[in-house]
User: What shape does this take?
Amino acid sequence: MPVRLLCAALCVGLLLVPATSPASAAGTNTLAKKKPKKCKKNRVRVKTAGRIRCLPVGRALPKPKSIDPRLAIVRAGLTPAIGRVPDPKNKVPPPAEKLYRQFDPQALKGMEKAVSMAIPRLDRLAATRRPMALAQASEESGSSFSTTIGGVKIDGRLTIAIDAVGQLVGTAEITQTRDQGGGKTVSVTTRMPIRLSHQGFEAKGGGCPSADGKVDATDSVGITVQTEFRSNDGKTLDEYFIYEVADESDPLQGRVGDDAKLDELEIKSIEDVTEKAGGSIFGGSIIHGSIVRNTVVNMRTGAYDPHVTVVNVGVALSGVLNVLSPLIRPQVAERLKAAADKGFAATVQYEIDRFRELEAKWREPNKCARLSFGKANESLTLEAGNSGDESVRLDATRGGSPAKADWSLSAQENGEFSFASHSDNPTNFHYRVTRAGQGLKVRATVRGVSKAGIAEQNWVQKTNAKQIDRIEGTFGGELVGATNTGTPSVQKWSGTAAFSRLTPPEGGPATGIYLLSSGEASIDLSGTEMSGATGCLQSGSAQAPLESGILEVRGAGPEGGPPYKYDLALSFKPIAVKGTRHTCPKAAQEEGYEGTQFDAGALWRLTVKEQDSSDGLSYLGSVKETLGFPPFVSTFEESWNLHGEP
Assistant: This one.
């Protein structure tokens, strides 16, 4: 797992607290306190070794960088700032970079590359070790490696163990050796104890936002980089550098907007840095600093918020450096900040990435928020036309309820839904049942988005249709027949029909047999006389009651419920339609057909099988047939629209 890091967000406050003596502290109390210096807009207050400046955000705060923060810290520790302090008497070691160059031009580059290889290997090694075996010897496959970089041979050894206070420690020991000839060698060894149990981002509350949209976490890192330059087969310690970093970011706090996305990330961290240097011919020197960073990152834009960012840097020197303390403290402070900025840039990006991972989690429905309805699912049995209001509330899994939520509805079935308010929490929604019956359920998916996260749940209620006792409606059709005159013969009819239940329902409320209880039909004639013999046009109409009718409904769904299949038959006795001839051809007129009547009695019957009704309430359809043979072809077309009622 990645390290728990020293700092957290893009905005940073950096404070190095210098050690002070009682005398100096007393003197300070006797002085009048000065008002803190205020900076203009978009500038950051930076204090280094007592000097206060207002710098642009870009100069005060490093841009986040995607790199393992541990690697950034270790790289800074390979060349600590302590070795770069000017010393005309040459009583402190020279800069570490110079010592690496003297060893080999590729030595520093090789060490940095070896470090980048070692840290991921430590991670893998720690992941494969069972907790019960952590205190055992570390010899196992993958615990060592060798490579050659730029002509310099590098050997690495990795160990995993538990220290005296129970912390998991991973150590990478990297050694470069160069033969000086004559049996003499020079070696550079870097040891990096990394407190692995102190690694890892830790979010509180399961990484979920609170009801007011706050997500707290902690992060920390503990790394020591110890570098030794030895000669004479390792017998002589020429120079050494020790770079220790212990950082705590507590708390880290993300603040979530009403849309369940991060608004800000606030970081408060304290970093203790100790640099030591010495050797066989050099006096020991120590630099100690405490760095406090306070900052806020705008998670919508990724920019620092300069209004809440403060950078303070101070240093405490001991050993031979203490003699030069007044002269070099400002320079050391600047260099220490520059070195720390590299690790901080990686840390900020690391924290942003971790909070983005948490954000993805709480934006998954029901991970960090849940919904509760006023009435439990399937506690109601509703009928078509029923309506009412239901309450819904979004709660944070950590407890409490946000004041607002953005509500939406989807996947509505067998009902109509609408919210009374789309932003209050809790809120109500109105429902009206549009379809009901055996096996049918009224449902909708309710979704709420809030500071606490996103919640989504189906609201589902049972339905039960009342027994259908009557089915009634209309029907109509026409018969169009070809004639030898070129003008077809047309017979149209329309009517109404009502059916009453004969048998009790078997399963669903619509199933059963219905018999015709009332109905009538009317017929109209047009076009050429049906026989076509005279060539005259026809007109006429008649009405008559229906003779018989039957409607049988069968449930095709669960427990005899919807959907339904039905058979329909309607008929009436032959109607004595008296047609009148008109607009006859000259020959027919001469024969006396013009204006005469004829019997155009019609025999009509509607019969359909295996028709579909989805709900047992609506029965509608149409049929079309072609009769006869060319050139005397007739078409028959009929439609019906019936509706069931309790």
About this structure: Residues 470-645 form one domain. The first strand starts at residue 43 and ends at 48. Confidence is low (pLDDT under 50) at residues 1-32, 130-142.
